[in-house]
């Protein structure tokens, strides 16, 4: 880490979101609106649902950014106003470019509703550059088995986006970005490449260790701005460390946001609401 780099560590407190599920959210909160290009991090759970108790996020709109849903444990069903439907299970990722706008629904699978079970995952919002905000919505979905996995020297790293140890994710990112699910055994470390100048977030899921020599414990997120071309995670000698690592080049553009819409100006934001209210986002077609 060079002397110009500064790391802030912020808590990820529990908040209630969507249909009533509890998430841990380091930002937007604590005076941090966003960490360019990342707009939001929600760690969903972990929670054990009894039969009939699982909940999700019913129909809601998006415009102007990307949503990334990564499931560690559990099952979700999703559908949208463009006729897209699918399921996401343990280890899977859905990278949705909302672009000009969609109505989206993310709910527990019927199996989760019937039997209950453990739910744990993340939703990340990533901003889109001005010229991409009104692009055609797009989905990229990959099973966990299709995502590269690094397992050696006490390291377990799933490469959701970007590259690590010569393994590259199939996800095509709109802005240069890296997303890794990292598990380190006691005393193990991982140094991974990122685009120089990136903003990097290490969201600690469990355990304790360090990020770029800054102490990191579970339910906290370390934020590094203007990174060098690589960052290092290390687990404490006494135990392991599990982290979701995010890195992205900042867009450096103005942000006008409210709820599910993220644009560059207030006029564009008002237009998003008008389009939504007038039905221009469409609706989710469901069988009777």
Q: TL;DR?
A:
With 288 residues, the protein is mainly β. Helix content is 6%, strand content 53%.
Overview of the molecule:
- This protein is mostly beta strands.
- The protein is built from two helices and 25 strands.
- It is globular and about 55 Å long.
- The protein has two domains: 14-143, Jelly Rolls; 147-248, Jelly Rolls (Sandwich), CATH 2.60.120.
- Kindly give the count of domains: 2
Beta content comes to over 45%
Unreliable segments of 5+ consecutive residues: none
Total helical segments: 2
Structural class: mainly beta
Q: Architecture of the largest domain in CATH?
A: Sandwich
CATH top-level class of the largest domain: Mainly Beta
Proportion of helical residues:
under 10%
Alpha-carbon Rg, integer: 19 Å
SSE order = EEEEEEEEEEHEEEEEEEEEEEEEEEH
Map the helices and strands.
Layout: E1 7-11, E2 14-17, E3 21-27, E4 38-49, E5 57-62, E6 65-73, E7 75-80, E8 85-89, E9 93-97, E10 102-108, H1 110-115, E11 117-127, E12 138-142, E13 149-152, E14 155-161, E15 163-164, E16 167-168, E17 177-184, E18 189-193, E19 199-211, E20 214-217, E21 220-224, E22 230-235, E23 241-248, E24 256-258, E25 261-263, H2 266-277
Antiparallel strand pairs: 1-21, 2-3, 3-4, 4-11, 5-10, 6-9, 6-11, 7-8, 7-10, 9-12, 13-14, 14-17, 15-16, 17-23, 18-22, 19-20, 19-21, 19-22, 19-23, 24-25
